[in-house]
Design a protein that fits this description.
Blueprint: H1 2-15, E1 22-27, H2 37-51, E2 55-59, H3 67-75, E3 81-85, H4 108-117, H5 120-129, E4 133-140, E5 146-149, H6 157-160, E6 164-167, H7 170-178, E7 182-185, H8 191-197, E8 202-205, H9 207-213, E9 221-223, E10 231-237, H10 238-242, H11 246-271, H12 274-281, E11 284-285, H13 292-300, H14 303-324
Helix pairs in contact: 2-11, 4-14
Length: about 325
Amino acid sequence: MKHLALSALLAATLALPVSAQTIRIAMNDAEDSVTNGEYAFVEGFRPVAEAGGFTVEVFPSNALGNEEERLSQTAQGLVQVNLGAATAPASMSPLLRVTILPFLFASTEEFDRVMAETDLMDHINAPLLENGVRIAGFNVRGLDAGFFNTHTPVATVEDLQGLRMRALNRGQVAFFSALGVSSTIVDWSEVSNALQTGVVDGYVNPPNSALRTGHTEFLHHYTPAALAPSFRAVMISEDWYSGLSEGDRATIDAAMVAGLQANRAWLPGWAAQVDARFAEAGVTVTELAPGERDRLVEMSTPIHAQLLGDEGMALVTGALNQVRGH
């Protein structure tokens, strides 16, 4: 009954009439520009949009529903901008799996160049546009992803194999399987309970995922492995965007640029705080033993083609070669 009441409340909220110049921004985290890079995006986006005559309303902390619900609302034009999981629309556009594949991009900077200088973003968006969604860019969530767990320092692949990890989706299940590690898919909203009850022992995420959620109460060990840059997508309603006047679209484009720049500018300041925050939270940081990262790369790289398919892998390889000058 509680779920039904919440659904009814959300439906009523979204049914309220809004001006054509109102932009609803939905996100899964708090309005905190210190630990939340997505809110740094909002703070960059908002003043440019408002200077262009728009009103910006922010709905944080999953106020408009979970990832799937917010994606659906964006496709329907009920939400204009959704800051969501980059893989949420992957069933429509499998190329989005590039955002979570380990050891695919050398850095955030290389990823940004691929998206700006090649046609990979066009290929990502093509099937999404048919479903009413456009990806305008990607926010970074923090430093590159590593391994968190509740039990033990992790310095080797064998240390990982004694743990049961939370997987974001089937792609991460494949990654852990390649390493010989057991995993189970757990929705982010259920992760805290899963860690407390022992359903899972840890997860792969950037440092601020555990710090900003309070998961460090249970996750006492972290291994920085530089698995991959950690991205979330800036999704916009295609019906809304394409229906804007030329001038209003230019305003939104400029606001997107400002938001993404603010997100990237946020990262160094946050990165400088991580070690002190880990120490304060009682998290032990364990480096990988010599040679172990090379083992991780060797064991997990084959899943790239498995998850992207031959055509997708060819597109990504071509884009990377273009940027790297091969």
